[in-house]
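Incident log, structure service

09:12 report received: a user says their structure output differs between two submissions of the same chain.
09:20 pulled the input from the user's history:
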Amino acid sequence: MIPEIEKASKEEIKAYQEKKLEETLQYLNKNSPFYKRFFKENSIRLSEIKTLQDLQKIPVTTKDQLQQFNNDFICVPKTEIIDYVTTSGTLGDPVTFALTDNDLERLAYNEAISFACCGVGKEDTMQLMTTMDRRFMAGLAYFLGARKLGSGIIRVGSGIPELQWDSILKFKPSYLITVPSFLLKLIEYAQQHEIDLQNTGVKAVICIGEPIREQDFSLNILAKKIKKDWDIELFSTYASTEMSTAFNECEIHNGGHHHPELIITEILDDNNLPVSEGEVGELTITTLGVEAMPLLRFKTGDMVQAYNAPCKCGRNTMRLGPVVGRKKQMIKYKGTTLYPPAMYNILNDFSEIESYVIEIFHNELGTDEILIKIASAAISEELLLEIKDHFRAKLRVAPKIEFASSEEIESLRFPILSRKPIDLIDRRA
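09:34 re-ran on a clean worker, output below:
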């Protein structure tokens, strides 16, 4: 199930997107209180925006604007809104997103072709191991996508290894949809209860919320830990509420595929100009086909690298590499620039660490400080020194590390109303 536009030439994809861009601009100018004002204030002449390159004539849209003028982004009357969701608020206050019936259909289409990208077919059954409530878009999207694709789905929700295994053994799903670190808890439970991991019927996992690959697409430490005990295929996926679009790996595992019928992508530098081929920049998106809350040149905050060579799977679309980090979560520590994923990778390398949370804050001089709290049954000064030495070897600096109880860390990772684990707490102003 590869949409024809994704097998088209680069020139055909560009022409298709430019036609959709023109429709989007006219729609925004007619229906969006925010963008009507935005175009006027910035003297934007829409007649001059004909190509994807012409997008650079329009200023970017920021998360701050989306938070400040949230309701002004809504393009439809309240009677047309079917569903409300909110962002996770990782980088600020949560933002509300409204969806029409057509937006839900678009969401279903996106997830159906994304699942198909990972090899899911009508004959497959997927176990959904994330919440569908708490105003969470992703859980609903997965359900709608499976329904559109014709696949079976088991809605178990997050956590509770015993219930997860009961469903796996009872219904024999071929795919799991989960945060990859939770797979380690499933493996531990299986080993304690003599469940044969190689005879479960599960052939693959669609991994959400956490990275499973290095920048060269090799498996990272977390993924290697999983694969060591459970020989299943792992698919990486990247998405956000603001995009209403996902970038899923195919069987080649060389980045998440772009769906050009759903979204225009730009990779921009600090001056909001396109980066050179092969360079890391901030993913900036323009949604296509969204009715209630379309976004134009919206800066996601995620630092990524694009790959433009055709994929062996038959798609000619751009691919996104693993997220390097979030721009606002960049840390300048003792002269070294760090992103949280690099620290996660080091911590995941220690089997003695049961769980952890990273806190970032400013010291009395106003510079960045890092405190890592870890839970371990093997508390010792030797383990602490070994972890710090590992940080120095990999990142050239060693943050402050302290032991904490599992209960304290779990309360930090799963605050009230949380929908997914929080591994980083940014206390900087």
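09:41 both user submissions now match this output. Likely a transient worker issue. Closing.
09:42 reviewer note: Residues 1-325 form a domain with the Rossmann fold fold (CATH 3.40.50.12780). The chain is about 30% helix and 25% strand.
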